[in-house]
Design goal:
By secondary structure, the protein is α/β, with parallel strands linked by helices. It has helices at residues 2-37, 44-47, 69-91, 113-121, 132-160, 168-180, 215-220, 228-235, 266-280, 294-305; strands at 54-60, 99-105, 124-127, 165-166, 186-192, 198-199, 205-206, 209-210, 238-239, 249-256, 286-290. This is VWFA domain-containing protein.
Length: 308
């Protein structure tokens, strides 16, 4: 009997100890959940509106593509449409909830400080303290300044002996998380480019993956038949992923152009390269559009920015 009583006491003690230990673990888990849920730097009223707080970044491809006058005209019109959609969004918000911004980037930065000064002018931040007149001024800023910026970029390239290219790949590697993603906002990156990617200091190749794509390198891939998509998968062609876990970034690419009359599939191949790249970097919401008439692209921009 003494042995039985002893076993009963041991079992009860063990049970109580386990319960106490489990309660301690539950408390620790609960504390961790609370810390995780409140770890954001945003005030609650801003965080609750995260999807309605726009953080729009624009990355301009200032490579030799801008030599064409029509590119300058189209890009200027696209930027004007973007500003209209941004302001349209802001106007439908309560003043107290304003937490929206738009900014412009290049990579690498041009050497002409006048270009950077224009970029500073085009950086707008709206909060509850922003004057209504400043909001209205945004459309005008984006209507008049981009063409000046492109003229200066051309002059800068002439003085430097040519265009160095646009380092879109390294922008994604080194800057996109710091410059374009914020916990308090819906983060959108708009890229104006013809889809080719090249910068003379960022030329890398890993098997059939590269950090670049040029008209010449595209020709060498021999993707000019209807089975081009199968060939891309079979040969594992594409861009080298420059980053990962970019699920809090949405991307709109505008301006894809083939520059190759001998390959009817060139634009499709370029778009496929970008799609594969975004997928592998974890970007879930993106849209890639060919160069088009500004009035048509305006709807694309509006639908992407003002989606409900």
């Amino acid at each position: 009997m003494k042995q039985i009583k002893f076993l009963v006491i041991v079992l009860i003690s063990s049970s109580l100890f386990c319960c106490k230990d489990d309660s301690k673990k539950d408390a620790e888990i609960g504390e961790h959940i609370i810390k995780t849920e409140t770890s954001s730097n945003c005030p609650d009223y801003i965080l609750k509106q995260k999807g309605n707080n726009l953080n729009i970044s624009v990355l301009l491809d200032l490579s030799d593509r801008i030599e064409e006058t029509k590119i300058k005209q189209k890009d200027s019109a696209y930027l004007s449409s973007l500003a209209k959609s941004f302001v349209e969004h802001v106007k439908h918000k309560k003043l107290v909830l304003l937490e929206d911004r738009m900014q412009l980037f290049f990579n690498p930065e041009p050497s002409d400080e006048k270009i950077n000064d224009i970029a500073k002018k085009l950086k707008v931040v709206f909060t509850k303290n922003t004057a209504k007149a400043q909001i209205e001024e945004t459309v005008s800023l984006y209507k008049t300044n981009p063409s000046k910026l492109y003229d200066l970029a051309k002059l800068d390239a002439q003085n430097a002996g040519g265009y160095p290219g646009s380092d879109i790949w390294r922008f994604f590697k080194d800057h996109v998380k710091d410059y374009c993603i914020d916990d308090c906002h819906r983060n959108i990156l708009v890229i104006l480019t013809d889809g080719y990617m090249f910068y003379n200091k960022t030329v890398m190749k890993e098997k059939n993956r590269t950090s670049y794509l040029t008209p010449k390198s595209l020709d060498q891939l021999k993707l000019n038949t209807s089975d081009w998509k199968d060939e891309i998968e079979k040969r594992n062609l594409g861009f080298i992923p420059a980053n990962s876990a970019l699920d809090d970034l949405e991307v709109l690419v505008i301006g894809i152009t083939s520059h190759n009359d001998d390959n009817a599939y060139a634009q499709d191949v370029i778009k496929s390269y970008w799609e594969k790249w975004f997928d592998e970097m974890g970007i879930k919401n993106y849209k890639i559009k060919n160069s088009g008439i500004p009035s048509n692209i305006e709807k694309v921009i509006s639908d992407f920015i003002l989606k409900t």
